[in-house]
Amino acid sequence: MHVSVALCTFNVESYISDCLIALLSQTFSDFEIVIVDDSTDNTSKIIQTFNDRRIRYFKNRRRLGLSKSRNECIKYSTGKYIFFTDADCIVSRDWIQQGLKSFSNSSCVGVEGKTYYVSEKYVPTFSDSVIENKHGGQFMTCNVAYEKKVLENVGGFDERFKYYEDRDLALRVKKVGKIEFNPKMIVYHRKVTMTTKSFIRRAERVRDRVLLFKRFHDRRFGRISDPMWRILHPLDLMTVVCPPLIFSLLGIYNFKNKEDWILLPYAWIKMVYERLNIWNACTREKIFLI
Fold it and tell me: What is the reported pTM?
C-alpha cells in the first residue's frame, strides 16, 4: 500500500458520512483509510455502511484522546505516506494526488495543505471556532501528510499534549527534514459555533502552548512557538488589566449573529482564566512567561 489516510473519530455521527464520501472519491485510488474510533454514538454503525475494502476500522476499548489515537493510526498504517485529516473536514478530489506530487517533486518529508474554514469566501464571526491554514506554517493534522518512517523516527505524537500536538510533531520533523506547503492540497473545515462553555474552555489550550514554547524557544520556528517578549497574547493581557478594552473586540471581530453577542460578556472572564492557565503552566514547566 502506497498511501494510508489516518482518521480519528469521536462522536461524529452527524458528518462522518460526508468525510468518507469525499475520501473515497479521490482521483488517486491506491490507498487505505485507517479509522481509530473513540465514539460512544452511532459513528461505528455509519462507518460500517460503507462497503469499501479500503476502510480499516479499529475501535478503542476506552477513550484514548487524539494524540494516542493518532499514534494508533500510525501503528496500523501500511502506507509509505500517511495523510491526516479530521472527520469534520471535506477533502478536495485530488487531495492525495496533490500531496504525492509534492513528495515526488521535492526532497520534503512532509506536506501541509491549504485549509479553508467553511469555504473560500466565508467571513467568520466572533462565535466561529475558526480552523484554517491559508499560507502554511500551521501544520494542522486536518490537512498534512508525512513519510511513515519519519513519524516513527521522531516518536510519533507526544501523548502529553492535549492541544498543539500537531505543531509539536511538525517542529520535531522539521529538525530532520523539510515540510512543504502545497496550496493545491485543499481541505474544507466544517463550521463550528462555540458555546459559552467551549468558548471559555479554549483558554485551557495555552497550557500546551507554554510547553511548546519551552521545547522550541527558537525564532526559526516562527510565531507558533515564540511569543513576543515572553508575553503570550499581549492584547489579552492588556484587557485583563484594563477591562474596558474588551469593547475593542467589536472592531477586531465580526459580530453578526445572536451567538456572537452572547459570548461577548464572557470574553473578559475567558482572558482571566487564560492568564491563570499560563501562569500555572509556567510554574509547572519552570519557565518564565507573562
Answer: 0.93
